[in-house]
Amino acid sequence: MDKKFPYGYDVNAYIDKAFEQLKADFPWATREMIAEHTYYGIAKVEDEYQYVAYWSNSEGKLEPYPQKTDCEGFIKKLVEGHEWELERANPVKESIDVPATNTYSSDWYLETYRIRKHELGGYSAYVQAGNRSAGGSRTFFIPVSYLKLPWEEFLDKYLDLVSPGSFYVSRNDLENCPGLKEFLGF
């Protein structure tokens, strides 16, 4: 077997490996949720097999573009490239806003900081911030393993995931948010 392609030349073997990793943080996910949206593959490009990403050309035809990566990097691309698909497949069923004591940093304002519970299971943090001319939002799924920890250890891990320096919500804000601990099942 080729060292660069330890699971062969069928992309499904790599999707399986990526899905194993995704399942740790998204236990409600199904393989079909990522497989149907995969625009990565393995193709022969100039007589050599390559990891590729497929992009639509001007005629709407998918063209393979080689990716400069190894097996581990390719699986990482599959994982990172499908987290948003899993988020979209698992709607929010309820949420709780976390008030921040500091909502301003440099010229950015924290607009929303919300912990969300999802229909198929799992929790996420949704953060939205901006200034007068730009802004954005980001979702952080909270790994299931974090929710099995004691509250204090959960906060330590959570604040590594969603750093308070970037989003202005501190440990104190989380500890003093009415109902948050219960909402998360602690």
Descriptive key words:
three-stranded antiparallel β-sheet; elongated; alpha+beta; five-stranded antiparallel β-sheet
Explain what you see.
- The protein contains 8 helices and 8 strands, in the order H-H-E-E-E-H-H-E-E-E-E-E-H-H-H-H.
- With 186 residues, it is of the alpha+beta class.
- Strand 2 and strand 3 (62-66) form a beta hairpin.
Count of alpha and pi helical runs: 8
* SS-based class: alpha+beta
Shape: elongated
Radius of gyration, in Å, reads 20 Å
Q: What does the main sheet amount to?
A: 5 strands, antiparallel
Quote the average pLDDT: 89
Portion in beta strands: 25-35%
* SSE sequence, one letter per element: HHEEEHHEEEEEHHHH
Number of strands: 8
Distance between the termini: 48 Å
Low-confidence stretches: none
Summarize the structure.
By secondary structure, this protein is α+β, with helices and mostly antiparallel strands.
